Amino acid sequence: MTEQNDSATDSSADLTDRSATRPLRVNSWNGWDPLRHVIVGRAEGTVVQAPEHAVRRDYPDDGFPLGTYGPMPAEMVAEADEQLDNFARLLSDRGIRVDRPTPIDFTQQVSTPEWSQESMFGCMPPRDLLLTVGNEVLEATMSYRSRWFEYLCYRPVLQNLFEGDSRMRWEAAPKPRLTDDSFKPGFWDVFNGLTTDEQLARVRDYDLVLTEAEPLFDAADVARFGKDLFVQLSFVTNRSGYQWLKRHFPDHRVHAVTSTNTHPLHIDSTWVPLRPGLVLHCGERLADAELMAFFKLNDWEVVEAVQPASWDHPPKLSFCSPWLAANMLNLDQNTLCVEEKEERLSEQLSSYGFEIVPVPFRAVGPFGGGLHCSTVDIEREGELEDYFPRRYGRF
């Protein structure tokens, strides 16, 4: 047993060494090809955001009632960073190159000539900001004033990629103005007073907090399926943002989709690609009927996720939903990293032939997401493929 463990350790070290010396290459067309290079976020410095048009944090039982803001509790930061560091080590031990962002002082006031914001946020969820499509890494607009300068945390990594891979395209969407014109005044007071059915109707009609004054989108609202990109209209992504993405990727088919949840915020916990022909859907409500029909016409199976087991809603200082359980990371078509307490979900996925890698990650949720949110692909083996040869309806 000891000899086997020593051998495994030596093998892991060798894999890590090889990942560090392998030439840098930006290449990722989907979320399931073999992962070779990834960014993993950090919890260090994260704050409960100061109020702004698009954000209302209200945690009266945890010391941050509506209107207050400040650093996350030190003990929560330490636990989350420990889990993030362990996750980064797990990936590195499998031969995957891991980069990390550089936190800045997120407690500081930030401003442009048109507005001031009393705090920033953090750099735990790189998936929100960065979108890799082929050899391009795109910086999203971001839709919160508190996250306007978050790109600075990733510039050292992106600069290194730019210098190391002559094929890498480094793009940034137009930095938004985020003036009052970009937001609907009094939205939250009205929306929170609606019934569930009324809220769902607003979501279906895309009558949410953002106006169409300028293109706005978070990268985590884009699901990559090779030739097809699905852009969710949400609290942080508007129609103009979708149109910008459609024009920016003219060689792709870019589809706008609306959520069937009352509080849409990022697509990667509700419409989760697992491998070619298989997609996992949040089990709370069925997806849009036309979207379901489009996938089934192209021989994709849509699986409803089992109810989350461990993501109580809301945990302390967390704005994430219980469906963060479905926020997983593929290492390849057959291997999934899943939060360790989600045993029922792991059993469900195992029945489809997946090897499950359980990862302790629950402490990370309050910092902005799960295993998928906390990462962004830089390199996956594989090329651009068309997984949807047949069209249906608006798709």
What order do the helices and strands come in, and which of them pair?
Layout: H1 2-21, E1 35-40, E2 47-48, E3 70-71, H2 74-93, E4 97-99, E5 110-112, E6 115-117, E7 130-133, E8 136-139, H3 155-164, E9 169-172, H4 187-191, H5 196-204, E10 222-225, E11 228-233, H6 239-248, E12 253-258, E13 271-275, E14 278-281, H7 289-297, E15 301-304, E16 329-332, E17 335-339, H8 343-350, E18 355-359, E19 375-380
Parallel strand pairs: 1-4, 8-9, 11-12, 14-15, 17-18
Antiparallel strand pairs: 1-19, 2-3, 5-6, 7-8, 10-11, 13-14, 16-17
List the uncertain runs. Answer: 1-16
> Structural class, from secondary structure content?
alpha/beta
Number of E-state strands: 19
CATH superfamily: L-arginine/glycine Amidinotransferase, Chain A
For the biggest sheet, the summary is:
3 strands, mixed
- CATH architectural arrangement: 5-stranded Propeller
Mean pLDDT: 92
* General form: globular
Q: Provide the β-strand percentage band.
A: 15-25%
CATH names the topology as L-arginine/glycine Amidinotransferase, Chain A
- Give the number of domains: 1
If strands are numbered along the chain, what order do they take across the biggest sheet?
Answer: 4-1-19
Return the string of H and E elements.
HEEEHEEEEEHEHHEEHEEEHEEEHEE
Number of helices: 8
Short account of what is shown:
This protein has helices at 2-21, 74-93, 155-164, 187-191, 196-204, 239-248, 289-297, 343-350, and strands spanning 35-40, 47-48, 70-71, 97-99, 110-112, 115-117, 130-133, 136-139, 169-172, 222-225, 228-233, 253-258, 271-275, 278-281, 301-304, 329-332, 335-339, 355-359, 375-380. The protein has 395 residues and is of the alpha/beta class.
